[in-house]
Design a protein that fits this description.
Helix content of chain B: 10-25%
Order of helices and strands of chain B: HEEEHHEEEEEEEEEEEEEEEEEEHHH
Shape of chain A: globular
Distance between the termini of chain B: 25 Å
Number of domains of chain A: 1
Largest sheet of chain A: 6 strands, mixed
CATH superfamily of chain A: P-loop containing nucleotide triphosphate hydrolases
Strand content of chain B: 35-45%
Number of strands of chain B: 21
Structural class of chain B: alpha/beta
Largest sheet of chain B: 10 strands, mixed
Distance between the termini of chain A: 29 Å
Number of strands of chain A: 12
Largest interface: A-B, 25 and 23 residues
Helix content of chain A: 25-40%
Structural class of chain A: alpha/beta
Strand content of chain A: 25-35%
CATH architecture of chain A: 3-Layer(aba) Sandwich
Oligomer: heterodimer
Radius of gyration of chain A: 18 Å
Shape of chain B: globular
Order of helices and strands of chain A: EEEHEEHEEHHEHEHEEEHH
Radius of gyration of chain B: 20 Å
CATH class of chain A: Alpha Beta
Number of helices of chain A: 8
Number of helices of chain B: 6
Strand order of the largest sheet of chain B: 2-1-5-7-9-11-14-17-19-21
């Protein structure tokens, strides 16, 4: 699904990613750990194609297409969907409108989807205007449900979220990764799958999201490089006990 | 910028006479009026007033509780309306107020009855059909105690206008616990010069909501309506949305004087230039406590032009709370990229953001008018990027 080869990325003059190699297969969810400033978010932003991130070397293949230099919307149309950690407020744009635009012409039932992530009351509000942490996450998920991506990029699903919201978010991410189609309809409540293969790339610090999803593999990002590939729970356990410094060893 | 010479304009041609059925207007004129938010065929209005060039052509009241008259008729009936005429606007303020005084062609007098809640809007239309016509109107609106009124005013010139000058005096009286929503839509042309001179006073517990929309070119427009909140708990809000293409010069603003305790004033101005020059002023003065005022002024420069925001806050007593936020610049790249990540290409993303910026939902307009404005916005979008 996603192949990243020797990816080097700079922000301004500074090289942040220093040779990333990663393959994520269909139906696989990959968990990314790492200290603040190590380059995790940069990797997600680069995969989505944001302007401030300059690829100086390497390439990105997604579903057989070389998207290294593709514009953001082409990546979105190919099926990359990202949940933003701090999305901007867009004044005058109703969440309902954005959710229906995100479907890209596919028929979606915005109201039914909104109900599932408890966002009904927000559909007529300006996107992200005054949303709390949990509301932003639910709004992002609602947009992804409408997008039905093949690959979900999620930057810290837990940040700013209370426990009750965490449960809702966890279940929704699980459904998204399960490739449920037309998530808005009654039928899909019974976990109807439509054969869509969905992969995930999720950044987490706390690991709470691991309670809800089947994560296959994980790695630690450390100073712009990936290291310590293992089962995500083992990695989390290791970081909890020894901190990130230990990663220096596996890098060496 | 070319100075305005009022001598170039004809203020003296005879008035056109009555038009009993506005449906008899030409399709082109009707379209111009529609783009100014006035639907002459509308049934869902409480009344219609129309003024063309130098005289009132149509005046019809459809509901009880509201009186709609040509100003000249009202002056004849009510002893010159001395209680209201030129009480809030100084007739010697400038050459334009003097011209309006000396050449009075008409305008509307709209007054509610005490306690009357007029749910459907009253629509009024000030239209300039003749070339190089100078139009001078005087409007007086009185919203009596405990009553409610929504006025839609559309101002327009004929489609092929070669030049026109509009002088409009408006005086608003919002009495105790009354509520006035006043929505004005301007649909001028590249060679129209416009000088509204407006002022209002709001008494205890009264509410004055003022909406202004300008999406089409205008040569030179200058206005600075002032509202005085004179009674305890009075509220005023100005919402304006303006677009200035190349060749347009707009010097606009509004002023709220918080002159009584518990008053609240708010101004929200959103401006876009696509080559024109906009001066966006705003002034809130807090002269009584407790009183609160907030001024918001946002501008986007899309392909040339000038936006000059001049927000002013003036507090003259301890404890007044005034704030403002002003921002002029371009569309945030972050917003464009966010929408692109949902599959919109750059142009779609930009246009979605601009539409949001210009959105007039907050004005609470009738659905049909909302549609007209949305349609006008999409028509002028092609000039924006």
């Amino acid at each position: 699904m996603l192949i990243i080869e020797n990816l080097h990325v700079t922000i301004g003059e500074r090289e942040v990613l220093k040779g990333i190699n990663l393959e994520i297969k269909e139906n696989e969810t990959f968990i990314l750990f790492g200290p603040n400033g190590s380059g995790k978010t940069t990797l997600l932003m680069t995969l989505m194609g944001f302007g401030n991130y300059t690829i100086t070397k390497g390439r990105i293949l997604f579903r057989g297409h070389d998207i290294t230099h593709a514009p953001i919307y082409e990546r979105a149309k190919l099926g990359i969907g990202m949940s933003f950690q701090r999305p901007p407020t867009i004044h005058g744009l109703k969440l309902r409108h954005l959710v229906s635009m995100a479907a890209q012409g596919k028929p979606v039932d915005v109201d039914a989807m909104a109900k599932r992530v408890n966002m009904t009351d927000f559909l007529e509000r300006d996107v992200n205007a005054g949303f709390s942490g949990g509301e932003i996450k639910r709004s992002e998920l609602l947009q992804l449900m409408s997008q039905q991506p093949h690959m979900v990029l999620f930057d810290e699903p837990e940040s700013g979220v209370d426990l009750e919201n965490m449960k809702l978010i966890g279940h929704t991410v699980r459904e998204l990764l399960g490739g449920e189609c037309s998530m808005g309809t009654e039928r899909s409540l019974r976990m109807a799958k439509c054969g869509r293969h969905v992969a995930g790339l999720i950044i987490t610090h706390t690991g709470y999201i691991l309670e809800y999803i089947n994560a296959d593999r994980g790695q630690v990002m450390y100073e712009g490089k990936l290291c310590c590939e293992s089962n995500p729970r083992d990695i989390l356990d290791h970081i909890t006990r020894f901190g990130y410094q230990e990663c220096l060893r596996c890098l060496a | 910028m070319k100075p305005i010479n009022l001598k170039e304009f004809d203020f003296n041609a005879p008035a056109p006479g009555q038009i009993a059925d506005l449906n008899s207007l030409s399709e082109a004129d009707k379209h111009q009026l529609l783009m100014a938010g006035v639907d002459v065929t509308a049934d869902a209005v409480s009344g219609t007033y129309m003024h063309m060039d130098h005289g009132a052509v149509h005046c019809k009241t459809r509901r009880d509780g509201v009186e709609i008259m040509d100003i000249k008729a009202a002056m004849a009936k009510y002893d010159g309306l001395t209680e209201y005429m030129w009480k809030l606007v100084d007739k010697d303020k400038d050459e334009f107020t003097r011209a309006a005084h000396d050449h009075l062609h008409g305008g509307y007098f709209i007054r509610t009855e005490k306690g009357a809640k007029i749910t459907e809007p009253v629509q009024s239309c000030l239209f300039i059909k003749g070339d190089m016509t100078g139009q001078a109107v005087h409007n007086i609106i009185v919203v009596e105690e405990d009553s409610e009124l929504h006025i839609l005013t559309g101002c327009s010139v004929a489609h092929d206008s070669k030049g026109a000058a509009h002088m409009g005096i408006s005086e608003f009286y919002v009495k105790k616990n009354a509520k006035l929503t006043f929505t004005m839509i301007h649909n001028w042309a590249e060679n129209t010069v416009v000088r509204p001179r407006s002022a209002g006073v709001v008494e205890e517990g009264g509410v004055f909501l003022n909406n202004y929309v300008l999406l089409k070119p205008v040569r030179d427009l200058q206005m600075y309506p002032t509202v005085t909140l004179a009674g305890k708990g009075a509220v005023a809000r100005f919402n304006s949305v303006m677009v200035a293409p190349e060749g347009s010069y707009l010097d606009t603003g509004s002023r709220i004087l918080l002159n009584a305790p518990d008053t609240k004033g708010e101004m929200i101005a959103r401006t876009i230039t696509t080559g024109g020059h906009i001066i966006a002023r705003g002034h809130i003065a807090g002269n009584s406590v407790p009183a609160r005022g907030h001024l918001e002024c946002k501008g986007l420069i899309l392909g040339g032009g000038i936006i000059h925001a001049i927000p002013e806050l003036e507090a003259t007593v301890d404890g007044v709370e005034l704030s403002h936020e002003a921002a002029v610049g371009k569309i945030a790249q972050e917003e464009i990229e966010y929408l692109m990540a949902r599959g919109l290409d750059e142009e779609e993303a930009t246009s979605t953001i601009v539409r949001g910026f210009l959105n007039v939902d907050i004005m609470g307009l009738p659905a049909k008018l909302q549609q007209v404005i949305d349609q006008t916005i999409s028509e002028c979008e092609k000039d924006m990027f």
